[in-house]
Please model this.
Amino acid sequence: MRFTLNRSESLKSHKLIRLLFDQGQSEFVYPFKMLYLEPDASTASPISFIISVSKRKYKTAVCRNHIKRLFRESYRKQKHPLQQWLLENHKTLALAFIFVGDKSMEQQAMEDRLKLGLQHLLNKLQAAAKPL
Model:
């Protein structure tokens, strides 16, 4: 298993982003609000994601970029169980993470919370996929 983060995993489609924010389901695990949607169109990667950090709460670009950098590193290490499940079930997922936490959050704390959030999302997807 390679712990990489490819460009194809980045969500760039304006149409899909709009659809995600309009019709996506949401979960909240501090410090993230997660929006997710299973798009109809297949993408190159099973998971496409976007991260958003509020300009109102974090005034400087340096601070926002630092948070995004910490998030991408944490996500790169924690995405594999969800990605593996999506590959096995031939599904795709569009994810949006909205950071609402404190800017003094450390890398390890962010990794732990992201792992918890992704596990919660995986459990929810597995429950929805089980036939009755």
